[in-house]
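Team,

Forwarding the record for the chain on the shared tracking sheet. I've put the sequence and predicted structure together so nobody has to dig through attachments.
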Amino acid sequence: MDNTECRVVAVREVGPDTVAIDIETPDGFSARPGQFVKLTFEVDDEDEPRFYTISSPDVDGTFEITVGIDPEGTVAPILADLQADDTVTVAGPFGSDYYEDEARAVILAGGPGVGPAVGIAERALDEGNDAAIVYRDDAPVHEDRLAAIEDDGGFVRILDGDADLTDATASALEEGGQIFVYGFADFIDAATAAIDAADGTTEDAKIENFG
């Protein structure tokens, strides 16, 4: 989908300096959790594109993105001020590292990687499949959804921002599954090392590096 004006349905706080934005799904838009969209904002007469991973389990009616608000960011003031019935310019979806009905999804998420993690886990469990999340962050977000995933039978481990990933990753991989990794480069390095230490393999892993 090329640039399309889409209506904001709701904006909700989901953790420290983090909001979830529900956007009305335009006609013909189809995407899966783990794919991402481009939002373009106009700042000082210049286009400022930003990419956000879909954090809802589906895009029926609306889809959700989870956004960390950096007070010093270029587009952060715009995002922080969004309200229902505002519009945003959306293109996409993009990306190939997303959920494709795998029987068991094992998601390692660092920081903003929790967005696709909860969307994938919820979709997997809704479809009668299995899901495991290992999430590392100094200030966790979406804690209510993570608790609900665990209540629904998913495996969830929330770790401090400097915690070693090895033991939690080994536990998540005990029953195998398709591996997904979402986060910034330093987290990707730590996650792949933990997978190797757990005798897993990253050969077929779906990995999205946020930079």
